[in-house]
Every structure is written in C-alpha cells, then in structure tokens.
C-alpha cells in the first residue's frame, strides 16, 4: 500500500465565463506549468508565478508534496504537470494548495477549470463509487477565495475514483473588487 495520495494537475484556467478557455481572456499565468522548473516547489512564492501553501502538523510537513513533473507520459498535454500529494494519515484540515493572485472584477462572472487525475488510482472506478461510499479515492478541493480569507468562497470538492483525466469546473464572482483572489 502506498503511503501517499497523489493528484496530477495539468491545466488551470480562469476566464470570464462567456469566453472560450483557449481565448486571450485566460487570466492565469503559466496555466500548464510549462515554464516551471521541474522538481519540488517551495512554500510561499511571493513574486513567483504559483504560490504554494502547505498546511498540516509539523510531523507531516515534509511529506506535503507539491512538485512540477516533467514527463510527457504523465502530463495531459505538453511536457509538464503539477503533482500534489499528501500522506494517507492526514487528520482534519491538512492539505497543499497551488494558486495565483488575480485582480478580478465584481461585475463579471468567471469560470475556473482544471484537468486533474488520481495518478495512483485504478483504471476504472469501483461499481457504485461515490463520495458517501467507503471506497478508495482522492479528493480535489478546487476553490477561489479572497487571499486574506474574507468574503465568499466559491468552488467544490471532487472525488476521483480512477486514474482518468477529468475536467473540473465551477463559476464564481469576486465579491470585493479591491481584494485579490487566490
């Protein structure tokens, strides 16, 4: 049994909701991680394209993984993807995040989407797999929030039951135009 749960993220898109994902309206910098240096990404990131946060007990901090993987076989498109991993023995709210600060307009609706897959998952989901059933899974919490933790949150938790790529998406509005959203 593996001691980590790894999720691969291939592409992150935030656009005004009416724009096509491939349009010039893409708001994220380096959405496919192609300009990231392969290897572990450090926590923090002031001035970096991607901000990385690790939240958890001191005993697991070094096992909360965020890394840029350069492997065309693992990436959905291109050469790179982002691998997020946490130990199986996490408790409560222990997690890793990768995000960017964006200045958004309160007058627009946005769509955020990612391509994600559970790298260690089975080839097909168990029959009847759901968030309420006790079957092996990986959870992707995909959210937009104000960087200071105030205001409304938007997003969703998604359970992955197999190793296939999934496009996860939700729509949201910035509630405070003066507050950057991560």
What does this structure look like?
The structure is a single chain. The chain is mainly beta and 182 residues long. The chain is built from no helices and ten strands. A six-stranded antiparallel sheet has the order 2-4-5-1-7-10, with no helix packed on it. A two-stranded antiparallel sheet has the order 3-6. It is globular. The termini are far apart. The model has no long low-confidence stretch (mean pLDDT 80).
List the helices and strands and how they pair.
Layout: E1 4-16, E2 39-40, E3 51-55, E4 65-70, E5 80-87, E6 95-99, E7 109-118, E8 138-144, E9 154-160, E10 166-173
Antiparallel strand pairs: 1-5, 1-7, 2-4, 3-6, 4-5, 7-10, 8-9
- The proportion of residues forming helix, as a percent range, comes to under 10%
Per DSSP, the total helix count is 0
Largest sheet: 6 strands, antiparallel
Number of strands: 10
Listing every helix as H and every strand as E from the N terminus to the C terminus, the arrangement reads EEEEEEEEEE
Order of strands, widest sheet:
2-4-5-1-7-10
- Report the structural category: mainly beta
Low-confidence stretches: none
The portion of residues forming beta strands comes to 35-45%
Q: Rg, please? A: 16 Å
Query: What number is the mean pLDDT?
Result: 80
Alpha-carbon distance between the two ends: 34 Å
Apparent shape: globular
Q: What's the quick description here?
A:
Helices cover 0% and strands 39% of the residues.
Features:
single chain; 182 residues; 6-stranded antiparallel β-sheet; two-stranded antiparallel sheet; 10 strands; globular
């Amino acid at each position: 049994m593996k001691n980590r749960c790894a999720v691969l993220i291939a592409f992150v898109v935030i656009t005004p909701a009416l724009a096509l994902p491939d349009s010039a309206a893409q708001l994220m910098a380096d959405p496919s991680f192609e300009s990231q240096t392969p290897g572990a990404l450090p926590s923090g990131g002031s001035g970096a394209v991607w901000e990385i946060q690790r939240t958890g007990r001191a005993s697991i901090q070094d096992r909360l993984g965020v890394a840029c993987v350069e492997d065309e076989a693992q990436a959905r498109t291109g050469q790179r993807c982002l691998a997020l991993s946490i130990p199986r023995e996490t408790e409560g709210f222990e997690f890793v995040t990768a995000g960017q600060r964006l200045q958004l307009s309160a007058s627009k609706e946005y769509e955020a989407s990612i391509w994600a897959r559970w790298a260690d998952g089975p080839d097909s989901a168990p029959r009847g797999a759901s968030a309420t059933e006790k079957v092996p899974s990986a959870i992707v919490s995909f959210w937009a929030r104000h960087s200071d933790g105030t205001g409304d949150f938007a997003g969703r938790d998604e359970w992955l039951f197999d190793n296939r790529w999934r496009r996860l998406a939700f729509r949201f509005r910035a509630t405070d135009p003066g507050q950057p959203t991560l």
